[in-house]
Amino acid sequence: MFSVSRSLERRPLDLRLVPSALSIWAVTLVGLYWSWVPTAVAALSALCLGALVWVVARGRRWTSGALAVLAVTAIAATGMSFRMHQIDRHPLRMVSEHGERATVTAVLGDSPTPMEGSSYGARRAQDRAFVPAEVQEAEVSGSRFRSGGDVVLLVPTQSWRGLIPGQQVTATGSLAPPRPGDTTLAVIRVYEPPAKVIDAPAWQRTAEDLREGLRRSSASVLTPAAAGLLPGLVVGDTSGLPPEVERDFATAGLAHLVAVSGANLAIVCGAVLLLLHAVGAGPVLSAIGGGAALVGFVVLAGPEPSVLRAAVMGTVTLLALVLGRERSALPALAGSVIALLLLMPQLAGTAGFALSVAATAGLVLLAPVWAGALHARGVPVGVAEALAVPAAAHLVTAPLVAAISGEVSAVAVVANLLAGPVIAPATVFGVLATLAAPVSGWLSEAFVWLSAPELLWVIAVAEHAAAMPGAAIGWPSGTGGGLLLAVVALGLLIALRHRGIRLTAVAVVLVLGLVLIPTRVLYPQWPAHGWSVVACDVGQGDGLVLATGNPGEAVVVDTGPDPALSAECLRRLGIRRVPLLVLTHLHADHVSGLRAVLAHSGVGAVAMGALREPAWAMGDIARDTRSRGVPIIELSAGQQARWPSLALEVLGPRGPLARSRSADDANDASIVLMASTPAGRVLLTGDIELSGQAQLLASGADLRADVLKIPHHGSRYTAPQFLQAVRPRLALISVGAGNTYGHPSPLILGALARTGTTVIRTDQEGDIAVLPGPQGPRTLTRGDPVRAER
């Protein structure tokens, strides 16, 4: 840890390299987002300004420093200009916008990573994975050429699963332009398995065997959540982390624990240094041992840019926290930024790089001062450091997190304070288990067993912190929101330097803690008392909950696209038992949350229609229900079910749609339910479109309802005749904010407005509860809508 006594010396900071680091970062961003011409202009401008300074201000004290910054800027901008010019003129980049097909031979830079979120329609995003790769040879339109540039392969997850970094493959696919702010030549959409696969180097295979050994030992000893967490703490592998745990970590401000960062390296290298110090090793041997641990960790985690970035940041963290030399740590941080950006300019526009730099700067600049101030006021050294470190890291990274996620964790400091003490031992035991796995399975499992209490503690901290009222506060996302929070944080830092303001702030916090939080807990506005139906805000998808009249019990219709959001909604509503979970059809935006709901609640049965397409979804559903011992039942028109305050009748699908076996009919073959509730009749329509609506109208069924769940998120494929037959007072539209499908359609909104129907949408209101009222159904909303592309 850093030294409190040294922080009290208040020596001036060594800022000499900071301007150079910032200028290089700026010109690198210019090159990434505006290409080579503006970067060349920046290089020329720096040279001209340097010449002007040399002529006009030669001999002044600040001249040498200014000239050094301008010289470094000119060099970096010139190099970036040449690099971006080569990328822009590369054959793959030049034809990427035309969608031509290309065959490439490339070396993988990482293992295939399933894409986040779920896509709309018949395929889910997790069926596709992205793989960074370096092209060795390419063929486009019959022209073959050798290449040394980077590409991103979008590949089928199933057939590419198991590939590791360092393997060489041949792949054919269609080209697409990369996203802005990237040095990637092109994105290649691949739909076939890899061809001509060549083994990775021996050291890469050894690293993968070690990682697999850790996963195997964890799965045999730990609970599923803990087994997914341990590889995340050790090497950033979150592939086995349950979605509900991952969401809890994000809400509680603990997501950084499962990302490869400087903290991982600081723990591993710190443990090695402490061990060497304990056995009396001298400085040279300790340096060799720490360096070996550093290299070994990079090999174990994989040498992709994020790990290399963490290696440099881990070195800086060790300087700040172990040596307590903040004066030397700041130049080291700035030098690390310079070196990384010159070697890997693509890092300049990534959130991970910015978060690493910000967090390390907070530990170097703020944490020692705050800990020293607390210690000067009588706080013990250990407690002062434990409070200052998470507070400083959270404060400086909060604007970036808000810009990315649109929310600020209000519990992050406390959660990190509680979880922090056990992270180091859990990580060290995980590393030892990894190293022992190839030698002895039982020894590896013993180390994993020793990490179990720490892992369970961290999971419990994340779960309870995320469940706190107001754990995550909504904030404007994007650059504007991040800058706004940065200004607020800076103003807070300046204001708190005055004693009177500090005392006032403490009083305000105490009032909030002693009055508002208990009020929110004892008298929460959500869930609404006496609700009949809740449309959970699950983004671009459906997730509806119907109260049965039994405490803590509800019927669920669809589980949304996100593996965690439906389970979170059930938790907020206090639902512990789900006697029936209905999947209206098997598209990703309706079924991808099933696993999390099964894990959260006691589900009696999962119901679906006769159509079991798409096949990938049916396979996942069968696997997840079988693992939980939950039966699958088939629903058909005419079936009914009853509970104390809920009656369900299946109205569709009917006719040929009820017998269809084609995935193309999935929307129109949605299960349609009429629910009789204390709030009135509620018609739940899945994603039925014109054909499915016509079948219902032709069946002669009574479609009149007080509340209509608008089909297909408000798409334009809803017939006016269908709306006239239902004649709802209230229309619910479950839709994601900012979705790219144009939902809900202005045509449907206009048709509903002309009939006097009240329309309420999850993209505007968040969770929506429907309650009985004296003059028909009424609503209460929770707010804080979820973005569609989360």
TrEMBL record:
Protein species of origin: Saccharopolyspora erythraea (Streptomyces erythraeus)
Alphabetized CDD domains for the sequence: ComA-like_MBL-fold
The organism's place on the tree of life at top rank: Bacteria
Pfam families on file: Competence, DUF4131, Lactamase_B
Membrane topology type: Multi-pass membrane protein
NCBIfam families the UniProt entry points to: ComEC_N-term
Metallo-beta-lactamase domain boundaries: 540-738
Localisation per UniProt entry: Cell membrane
Membrane-spanning parts: 15-34, 40-57, 64-84, 254-276, 283-301, 307-323, 330-347, 353-374, 386-404, 410-435, 447-467, 473-496, 503-523
Presence of the UniProt keyword Transmembrane helix in the record: yes
Keyword terms of this UniProt record: Cell membrane, Membrane, Transmembrane, Transmembrane helix
Region span, Disordered: 771-790
InterPro entries: ComA-like_MBL, ComEC_N, Competence_DNA_uptake, DUF4131, Metallo-B-lactamas, RibonucZ/Hydroxyglut_hydro
Stated name of the protein: ComEC/Rec2 family competence protein
SMART domains recorded: Lactamase_B (SM00849)
UniProt entry tagged with the keyword Lyase: no
Subcellular location, principal: membrane
